[in-house]
Write a structure and sequence with these properties.
Number of domains: 1
Number of helices: 6
Radius of gyration: 23 Å
Strand content: under 5%
Helix content: 55-70%
Largest sheet: none
Structural class: mainly alpha
Oligomer: single chain
Distance between the termini: 48 Å
């Protein structure tokens, strides 16, 4: 009896998660979006290139993000190796000694500027997509999962910040922005 008492709520929760997970339509899945919003042929032909542009932007962003994360990991590895040589060496490196630290900070700033440009491009394309929808489709569009640009994992030391978890300094972990489109 005790097992059955635990089994029923567990089965219910699994069913809810499965059903809710399946009901989320993603904008980049054009066929599913088209079906859910009941696009006309003209709408489909107008929206398809915009969705492809969004996918290309996301692909370019993800590539740049992977490159930056790789460089950050290299800096963390370098700092941890240099840190084992003594306290003063670690202190110099954590401050981003010399031009290498400045160059890396510049790369990070450029990455965030590029991310902002990408977000603006995606927002413009989403607005253009919404403009070709009728009122009923716009209402249904509100439930479509829009793409977002995840921030890279920064890790504290790679950016000259503290290594403590949750530090709000330069490299204090994952940050998420919000502009109304899924946390770009």
């Amino acid at each position: 009896m005790k097992c059955r008492t635990l089994y029923t709520p567990l089965l219910f929760m699994l069913t809810v998660f499965t059903v809710s997970g399946c009901s989320s339509t993603k904008l980049l899945d054009l066929n599913e979006t088209s079906t859910k919003l009941n696009f006309t042929k003209t709408q489909h032909e107008t929206i398809k290139p915009k969705v492809k542009q969004i996918a290309a932007i996301i692909e370019e962003y993800e590539s740049a993000k992977r490159t930056l994360e790789s460089e950050m990991q290299g800096r963390r590895n370098q700092l941890s190796t240099n840190g084992s040589l003594g306290g003063s060496g670690m202190r110099r490196n954590r401050q981003g000694s010399g031009t290498r630290g400045t160059e890396f900070q510049t790369k990070i700033q450029e990455f965030y500027k590029q991310r902002t440009r990408f977000m603006n491009q995606i927002n413009t394309l989403v607005t253009e997509i919404q403009a070709v929808l009728n009122d009923a489709q716009r209402d249904a569009f509100a439930s479509i999962k829009l793409p977002h640009l995840e921030l890279p994992e920064t890790g504290g030391a790679a950016l000259g910040g503290s290594r403590r978890r949750g530090d709000s300094g330069a490299g204090g972990g994952r940050r998420r922005g919000g502009n109304g489109f899924g946390g770009f």
